[in-house]
């Protein structure tokens, strides 16, 4: 182990996220350079709460399978472990099971028999309510104290994993780790930490490499990077020939999707890179020293996804000069007319709580803020109608009631009725539910394993029929 | 007075978890960073006004090594909610481009 640290503990991060396109030649190059593990996340919260709420992956099954196949082939021939976190985009039990089934299919196709550790971190509501009642759950800014109603609103809840369960699974001989929701950083940091590397450089390396080649100069010139963590710091280099990591490209990644570029809170501590120094070793490689880990009382972040009301949408394109001459006024008048029309068409007791919004694409749809006076008139606007109601049928009914007004409402009353440009028939599109993250809280734990269950699938025994489970 | 977009090489916005939006404002060189990053137009208060944020929660962190300043604030509504207009918040930086800066 000491020898390892002197040479550097080497980890391939093959892509930004599983399914994004692992490159076989990059993995081969990383292994040639002495890589001892392949680690990547398979999702995040970035794309919204739907994936946790529904237990579905955002990524295409074929794309994930393709990436896993390349990695599992390399695993079988080299023996280096594969570490995957946030399986199936959100890391709930359904997301994890989806990923497991793909791994089992690939194992059959490749005729390989790895030992697979599945690290579960989905929580039942009763557990969360109990922890909350015990005063162990605290809100993160800007959220408030947790109440039972918020817990009940969630479809699925996960506790975000740190390195400890990964380290335990590596210690127990896992060839493949499929984990539930984990911090991107922990997935990568777990291997060097298991090998005895210092925690500061291990976590920092994990953060820098969490999006694969995004920490390189040419973020699309290849998929993966190779990390090497030693007793003093770490090195990072892209796996695609011709691409480069530079001090700017590497340190710049600390800014990415973070509210604080110097201090990153993780389960069990804070990564502090305030005193980190980034230097070029050669054309490809950057060396980083001075990363510090400050141990803190152990916490795991909770993520919970709720399914809300249903939406139906319609879209028209408008080039009508009267509308374009007063887009904000048209928006306000049409919206008022649609609310009135809805209330007149559908009995109040049936309607319940509902909402209509209009987004003026080509004008101010992405902010909703009225443009300054004197803003140039666009050649056309696309108007998106969004009705939100308690169920899909009701949202559809609102859209149907609004359809003639949305189609014909004039900007100047008394003129002949215009007809705006529908793109589809039927014009209304039932869109499904709204999904929202509800929890922004952390839970204090004395034992990092309290909310974690590791399940083993040992394909080397009885062709995978043997499953044992322990916490 | 120049506009912020004219003294920067790159400005971006992105979600930082489901509850925060973060802005990375990269000045065009050290000279512009030194001259403009403490401008009142980039203060916590000015930023909060521009985005309708609560100034008590706005985080503002200069990173001199990269000639940039990072400003973050909690989303007024959680990601993906009823009135979501920009799921990844990737377009929210645009109104910064035309802010006159002294």
From TrEMBL, chain A:
Residues 64-408 form the Acyclic terpene utilisation N-terminal domain. The lineage of its organism: Bacteria, Pseudomonadati, Pseudomonadota, Gammaproteobacteria, Oceanospirillales. InterPro entries: AtuA_N. This is Acyclic terpene utilisation N-terminal domain-containing protein.
UniProtKB/TrEMBL annotation, chain B:
Pfam families: DUF4387 (PF14330). It comes from the Bacteria. InterPro entries: DUF4387. Residues 4-99 form the DUF4387 domain. This is DUF4387 domain-containing protein. It comes from Alloalcanivorax balearicus MACL04. The lineage of its organism: Bacteria, Pseudomonadati, Pseudomonadota, Gammaproteobacteria, Oceanospirillales.
